Amino acid sequence: MRGRRRTGDGERSWSGSDWNLLLRLLPFARSHWKPLGLSMLLLPLVSASQLVQPFLLKVAIDGPIAERDSKALLGVVGLLIAALLGQYLLQFVQSFSSHVAGQGIVHELRVAVHGQLLRMSNRFFLRNPAGRLLTRCTNDVEGIGEMFAAGFLMLFADLLLLLGICVAMLWLDLRLALVTFAFLPVLVLGTGWFQKKLRHCYREIRRRTAILNSYLQESISGIRVIQLFGREERTVRNFEERNIALISENFQSIRLDAILFAFVEMMRHVVTAALIWYAAEPILGRDPGLSFGVLVAFLDYLSRFFQPIRDLSQKVASLQSGLASSERIFALLDETDWIEDFSGGDRAQLKQTLALKGALSFRDVHFWYQQQEPVLRGFDLEVSAGERVALLGVTGAGKTTALRLVNRVYDVESGQVMLDGVDVRQLRLSELRRAVGVVPQDVFLFMGSVRHNLSLGMPISDEELWTALERVGAAELVRRLGGLDAQLGERGGNISAGERQLLAFARVLSYDSAVLLLDEATSNVDSFAEQKIQEAIATSMNGRTTLVVAHRLSTLREVDRIVVLNQGRVVEDGSHAELLAAGGIYHRFFESYFAVDSPQQGAFGVEQG
Amino acid sequence: MILEALPTSSANSRLLTLFSEERRRYLLGVIALVFSNGAAAAIPYLTKVAVDLLDSATADASDLGTALSSSEVLNALLGWIMAIVAAAAVMAFFRVQSRVYIFDGGRQLEFRIRNQLFAHLQRLGPRFYGGLSVGDLVSRCTNDIMAIRLLGGPGVLNAANTVIVYVVAMIPMLLLDAGITALALMPLLLLFGLTRFIGPGIYKASYRAQEELSRLSEQATETIAGIGVIQAFARENERQSSFAQVSESYRQVYLRWVLYRAVLLPIVAGMGGLGTLGVLWFGGRAVIDGSLSLGDLVAFLGYLTLLMWPTVALGWLVSMWQRGRAAMDRISQLLDTPPEVNPQLDEPPALALDGAIEFAGLSYRYGDGEEVLQDINLRIEPGERVLIVGPSGAGKSTLVSLLAHLAAVPRGSVRLSGMDINDLPLSWLRSQVAFVPQSPFLFSMTVGENIGFGLKEAQQDRIHAAAQLAGLEAEIASFDAGYETRIGERGVSLSGGQRQRMTIARAAVLNPVIWVFDDCLSSVDAGTAKNILASLSNRTDRSTALFVSHRLLGFEAADRIVVLEEGRIIEQGSHLELLAAGGWYARLYARQRLADDVAAPAETETPLAEELLR
Questions:
Q1: How far is CA A56 from the centre of its chain?
Q2: Which of B104, B226, B240 is facing A446, going by the closest CB pair?
Q3: What residues pair up with A547 in beta bridges, in sequence order?
Q4: Residue B64 — very low, low, confident or very high, per pLDDT cuts 50/70/90?
Q5: B-chain residues within 8 Å CB-CB of A286?
Q6: pTM of the predicted model, to two decimals?
Q7: Is ipTM strictly over 0.85?
Q8: Is B525's pLDDT higher than 60?
Q9: N or C: lower Cβ tally within 10 Å for chain B?
Q10: Which of A469-473, B154-158, B328-332 is predicted with the least confidence, judged by mean pLDDT?
Q11: Does the CA dihedral A391-A392-A394-A395 come out positive or negative?
Q12: Is the pLDDT of residue B24 over 70?
């Protein structure tokens, strides 16, 4: 793994690199500079419109009211109205534009994360559980949005407001301001202590939420097994345990938060009392600088002073969790565990291979999933254009692996895989993969229509799709389902495994690729359907190179050549009759193997991506 | 199944039920809130008295002679100031109580609905799961529940707070001046009209936003699960643009919801502000007239500041309520789906199962679809080994899955040892019938836990025996932590064959009376299959065994072969009987046989399955 940061869900504390994270978010914010800028621009205005209100209150009390001047009062009240309306209007525009910016950034990040996932290699997906990757795409991205909308900008706004209030208080009356500030150490120490506790709490809550949610996801995915084995009760109990672990931490945070909330509120009133006490003497002593109006305005500022301080902890928490999310997202975006696309400029070579004939060759190919366990060791195989070759061998012989090297699910460690004499790594990845059709072991269906599942969004006409369906004998199935528009579920609804495979065949035929890779594809299809497919494949294989991991006799009889692999090397190579006559591995293998209904294994210590 | 995007009546009542179940906490919280707000309301009043004292002292001082001495004023003032501090302390104490009770209530509510939903999902059958994606379900269990929690915690607090603050503040305000108080009430009336007008729009926007959130999680889940296909067919760009589309549409509906909320806030707050202004204007004039003391006006303004936040919170509440309702609707759609099968009785029946199975007139369909099974009549004797064959989609897997009572079956249509399956306790039944399913799904637990999945408590000897039977013993020993090795995340990744054998071990650990092999030996190689079948044959001596298979060769010795086509039994009998009948089976057998004969002399065949079927 070359990612610079941890990909895990582990937690972190504030460090200098947080500035780097914010800097890295900038490019995503760039195209949303308008709403972002507007929102930032409005922040001081919102603060100012808030700050001016207590001051106007003071003016009203000390001026017109004290002087019994109702005309002047009208003027001041008018100003106050303007300030109030201005505040809420500005706040509305500010809050909405910050959401527009936040959601825009979130959208871009989400698409970037998704795009990155699409690039990653099979190895990457083996290393990273699906649940974690899903979290990157959803919760983590939302966390950053939350940081922008609620945390980051509001924190900025609050600090601005606090600063403004401090200035206003100092300007109104230095002595009263100093009295107020005298309470600051208590306030800062108190909130600091609570915030530290709360941060820990929030971190723990996120961790426990992640545990709960991954359990949830797994239990929904595995619901059938849970039910078949009567595990529902225990699963529910386990879920409840995780739920309890989460709620107990939540309770903890509620208490800390409530005490902090009440503490700050109480401090506000204590400071109020102190101010009145302190103000009494100057007022009684007729100090011209300290009027009722000043006192009232001061008390008003005071109430506005404490709210941001109270909310600070939540905003800091959301900022921190947003940063933690950014860190995880950037760790993913920094991953380079993908299959390198060919970017060299020899277009002529590409053109040439686009008119594919489909000759395949493996030259001294070495490959391993784990270095200590080589899978292919000096694998050599020449398949001429249009030739149909079956691969045979015991578990771990390297059959499926060989197929995976053709369309670059993996790259060779050494040696070469060539298509029409060009190393597959010298071909543009998308063109290579268009040229190579695959029927995998496990057929995955997407939510959506039959049409979507067959074409995968390629512009393929309905006629062509129906032709392909007819050829694999799946037309009747699709008609029964309700046509090309019929919706297929994630689990394939009431479609059997065999039927899913029929659809996979139809898909590969409608793509009309030059090279066909079949991996144990016929294992689940019943013999009648298989017959149809065999026929369809036989016709569609015309002039098309085919490499098949076979476990059916009928398949073996269709191919031109059979290649027996053992320990990552070709050990026998020839037609069925030749190999049988040779009386070697194939002969023995054939005897034990084709006597039972037990298709062999194809994967080698790894799962299908 | 199709889930309607309409507000259901059950959502509202379900929300109310949920809330009423937390009534104790809410009630205590509201009481604490009353006290804390009462104390909070006393503070402006005390402030007023203190300020009035100063005012009168300075005013009096200007009238020669009658002035109170400064120290007297200060002493009186100190008393009031102590009262302010005391009130603040009382307020703080009850503030903590109120928040703890109400927020706990919200969390508790979230906790309960999450458990309830999860437990409910555990009971829903294949009919339900056929039409819903994992991504969608997970999103409902997380994002929608969060919306309800926000309503149950901060929502309830703010609602209660608003009411209480208004009532509490209103009393002294009315005492001070009824006319001016009426001014402060005006915004409320406007607000009610506004929410009636704007509420449905917010609801719709919330619902759509929650829906799009589901689609996002669905799409991402699918990309991750289907990455192999996407890359193999070079469809990354198409996939990316469809994801971007969903993300964009989520952005838009979410912003619409935000817009509603954002618009609501300034309007509501503005109306509150207008109330303040009215007070200031009329109050100020009253002070000028001399009909209101300056202290009264200050107190009045103090009360209005008190009302400010609750009024703003009202707007917020409206949007939270609509979102909570939308979320509850989406959750209700799940909760309103009744489980097909209700777990009957806790006590296992007196009679032990002997492995006899009877299907009598059994028909089955998924949802509104066609019948996948039609009038199945089949009696299987204890210890019988039955092969079930037929074309794809014939209903083979559905038929065997009904043995575990995964879906509802009409009374009398499935019997085990003469007992109706509907009368058997589910968990007990499922410990008697062991499944080896088609796809080898394992959990991210340890190897040992996965094998012992069906056991009430882990029994190492049984787990080891089962692993041995499935030919896993040596491989498990080679893992770093043996049986304690975790599978999946941060653990060992197993090959398809190993997974398949794990599922066999998982079934074997039950020592079942009935075995069901649902076309499961597809990714095990020949040698391994031979070993498994051989050891199974010892273990399954007295057990009934059903095999779903596409391959006929090797199963000739089955006691019975049942051929399904389009949900009906079209043939059944022993191998020889069916051959003689010359039907579907005979044709397919001949074809498979021919394929073999062409390839190999008959005597080299060693039909492994025969051992098992003996």
A1: 50
A2: B226
A3: A389, A517
A4: very low
A5: 58, 61
A6: 0.80
A7: no
A8: no
A9: C
A10: A469-473
A11: positive
A12: yes
CB contact under 8 A, A106 and B251: yes
Structure token pair of residue A101: 């910016």
Residues 6+ apart with CB under 8 A from B474: none
What was the pLDDT predicted at B537?
67
* Nearest-angstrom CA–CA distance, B234 and B1: 32
Residue of chain B whose alpha carbon sits nearest to that of A519: B523
Q: Are strands A487-488 and A448-449 parallel, antiparallel or unpaired?
A: antiparallel
Given B278, B300, B335, which residue is the final one in a domain?
B335
Report which of B335, B293, B377, B395 is spatially closest to residue B53, judged by C-alpha positions.
Answer: B293
Radius of gyration of chain B (CA): 36
User: Are both B64 and B111 inside the same structural domain?
Assistant: yes
- Which residue is it, tokens 């694999």? A472
Record: contact B404-A596, CB cut-off 8 A: no
Q: Which residues contact A142 (CB under 8 A, 6 or more apart)?
A: A106
Which residues, 6 or more positions from B151, have their beta carbon under 8 angstroms from its beta carbon? B15, B106, B320, B321, B323, B324
For residue A406, the one-letter residue type is V
Contact B387, B560 (CB under 8 A): yes
Q: Which of B95, B231, B451, B610 would you mutate first to test chain A, the one with the most A CBs within 10 A?
A: B231
| Domains identified in chain B, total number | 2
Token code pair at residue B206: 């919330």
The pLDDT tens digits for A481-534 are 888 988 886 555 557 666 777 788 888 888 888 888 887 654 445 555 566 666
- Chain B: nearest CA to A520, how far in angstroms? 9
B161 CB-near residues (< 8 Å, 6+ apart): B33, B37, B310, B313
Residue B524 has pLDDT above 60, yes or no: no
Q: Identify whether residues B361 and B331 lie together within a single domain.
A: no
- CA distances A518 to A87, A90, A508, Å, are 67, 63, 10
CATH of the domain at B517: 3.40.50.300
- Show residues of chain A in contact with B393, CB under 8 Å: 477, 480, 494-496, 498-499
Give the residue-averaged pLDDT of B338-365: 79
Q: Give yes or no for residue A243 having a pLDDT over 90.
A: yes
B228 near A126, Cβ under 8 Å?
no
Angle between helices B236-289 and A33-60 (to 10 degrees): 10
As to burial, measured by CB atoms within 10 angstroms (0-12 exposed, 13-18 middle, 19+ buried), residue B153 is buried
Q: What is the pLDDT of residues A563-606, one digit of tens each?
A: 988 888 898 899 888 888 888 878 876 665 554 333 333 222 22
Same domain, B410 and B552: yes
Which candidate in A221, A229, A306 is best for mutational testing of the B interface (most B CBs within 10 A)?
A: A229
Q: B78 and B38, same structural domain?
A: yes
Given CB atoms, is A283 within the 8 Å cutoff of chain B? yes
Q: Which residues contact B300 (CB under 8 A, 6 or more apart)?
A: B173, B176, B177, B180, B279, B283
The predicted structure's pLDDT at residue B439: 75
pLDDT of residue B301: 74
For position B463, what pLDDT does the model report?
93
Whether residues B524 and B608 fall in one domain: yes
pLDDT (0 to 100) of residue A537: 64
For B200, the token pair is 């449905």
pLDDT of residue A2: 37
The answer to whether B522 contacts A281, with C-beta atoms less than 8 Å apart, is no
Asked if the structure places residue B79 within a domain, the reply is yes
pLDDT tens digits for range A376-401: 999 999 999 888 898 887 766 788 88
Closest C-alpha among A63, A58, A102 to residue A80 = A58
B599 has pLDDT over 50: no
Q: Which is nearest to A410 in space by CA: B60, B350, B231, B169? A: B231
Rounded Cα distance, B589 and B583, in Å: 10
Co-location of B205 and B277 in the same domain: yes
